[in-house]
Write the structure tokens for this entry.
Amino acid sequence: MRIDIITVLPELLQSPFDASILKRAIEKGLVEVHFHNLRDYTTGNYKQVDDYQFGGGAGMVLMIEPIDKCISQLKTEREYDEIIYMTPDGDTLNQGMANQLSLKRNIIVLCGHYKGVDQRVRDMFITREISIGDYVLSGGELGAAVLCDAIIRLIPGVLNDETSALTDTFQDNLLAPPVYTRPADYKGEKVPSILLSGNFPEIEKWREEKALAKTKTKRPDLLK
Ligand code: ADE
């Protein structure tokens, strides 16, 4: 899979891809992530990427021309399955969307900034608009990092034990059951004895029950 991220702040995006699972996924060649600084697609001396909005009002708007140049350049190089715009008024990201997107070959992720992008960018290029939640961030970069993390960890081979993504919270509309590690007794707080029993069918049954009970209590909406 290849992900091209278009941003005015590439430095804000680098570090999540330089550590842990995402870093290893890139090193293993399971995903390529490329950053494109919108300022590299401007013409004037001032590398202007934004301007005042027509009709008046506070806040700057990302201009269409540099975005068009960047996306058009990328599209001459390969076909894209999705061109995603990160925006608080997009569809709220969930595990199902991450699953779908992890199956794509090439995607572009455009990060908004300031008041967002000229509407014509959305009309002309964008195939999907995604929000990471009902709150407003300073820009789409952190949202893009969240989206990429959710997608990349699902690519086969990225997690060491492939089944571990399958047992994640949300994967089957259930929250994950509680997990424990050593010591078995911490200041009198004991690990449930079933987990120490070695009886794997019973452990599996216990986990399913716990997952269901937790979901009923914390997120009954998931069970509908
Ligand atoms: N840009 C600003 N706020 C955002 C959000 N909640 N999700 C995605 N992109 C955003």
Remarks:
- The chain has a mean pLDDT of 95.
- The two ends are 33 Å apart (CA to CA).
- Helices lie at 10-13, 20-27, 64-77, 95-101, 119-124, 141-152, 163-166, 200-218.
